[in-house]
Amino acid sequence: MPSKPLTRLLRLSLLAAAALSGTAQAASPAELLAGYTAQAGAQADAARGQALFTSRHGRDWSCSSCHGALPTQVGKHAATGKPIGALAPAFNPTRFTDAARSEKWFRRNCNDVVGRECSAGEKADVLAWLTTLKP
Amino acid sequence: MTLRSPVLHALAGLVSALGLAHAALAEGGNSRPRLPLLPSYQQECGACHLAYPPGALPAASWQRITADLPHHYGVDASLDPALRQELSAWLTANAGTWKRVGAPPPQDRITRSAWFVREHGEVSAATWKLSAVKSAAQCSACHTQAEQGDFNERNVRIPR
User: Fold this and answer.
1) So what's the pLDDT on residue B5?
2) Distance from CA of B40 to the nearest CA of A (A)
3) Structural contact between residues A45 and A128, judged by C-beta atoms closer than 8 angstroms
4) Which one, out of A113, A114, A120, B2, has a CA that is 20 to 30 A from the CA of A7?
5) Which among B45, B48, B133 is the top mutation candidate for probing chain A, defined by the most A β-carbons within 10 Å of its own β-carbon?
6) Between vectors from CA B119 to CA B118 and to CA B120, what angle results, nearest 5°?
7) CB A29 within 8 A of CB A101
8) Which residues of B touch chain A, with CB atoms under 8 Å apart?
């Protein structure tokens, strides 16, 4: 019988594989965070995630431009004005429940905000911060 | 029940016929029934802006738009190739059905179409700048039924 850490590792690698192959895979924010942390090989830092999220990186927009400085409520798309549902998982249970979907948005939005894809460590930091936000 | 049923049937038929005619006329005065949106179109494109009716742009515009999603009006809207292909085919197949849609508008923007500019000529500059409006791309700021594909003037409520 496989030990607990081993099954956990197996589950995380399945999630990572799902993210890479683009197939939908139900997950929890905690599992996605664990996956990014394992990929980064370093502990996530919520404060660093908040700084990344709320500052601009040499371009017009920060993550906050659309999601709000505190993404616990509905945001507003900076170009179109369309409402964007809260991003913090405790305020919106659909967030970070699908590895491929999270990967898609990280890829696009980091490209718009930072001008490149975010590293696994950066994603872990942001997600670590988002999961600290509680009602 | 049996006594009233022929009359009721006839009435019900008339009412539903009127309802259909109404629905058909509701799309910005166009005489076509509203097109049900492809769920993946609603989900992917509708995440950032109203899922614009495919009929409001000609096929050439939709083809150019879906061919360059990584540079989508200043935003990375990239999709995986299979999904991109699916959306492109559906948009192209349903393109240009609105009455006055003709040549591609500048930058393939619905809001730069001659008919759009004409129809919105009476909207003041101050209205466009309202925080509730913000962008001409946000149809639903004034067209209260836009999410349902209904752009009828009678459902317009301009915010103050």
Assistant:
1) 53
2) 13
3) yes
4) A120
5) B48
6) 90
7) no
8) 48-50, 70, 73-78, 80, 133-135, 137-138, 141
Task: Please tell me the predicted confidence (pLDDT) of residue A16.
Answer: 52
| CB distance A43 to A36 below 8 Å | no
First vs last C-alpha separation in chain B: 51
pLDDT at B131: 85
The residue with tokens 């599992």 is A31
Q: Which residues of B42-51 are buried (b: 16+ CB within 10 A; e: fewer)?
A: eebbbebbbb
Report whether A47 contacts A54 (CB < 8 A).
no
**The pairing of beta strand A83-84 with beta strand A75-76:** antiparallel
pTM metric for this prediction: 0.79
Mean pLDDT of all residues in B27-36:
61
Structure tokens at A23: 């197939």
**Higher-confidence residue: A67 or A22?**
A67
DSSP A84: E
Strand partners, A76: A83
Which pair of tokens denotes residue A98?
């699908």
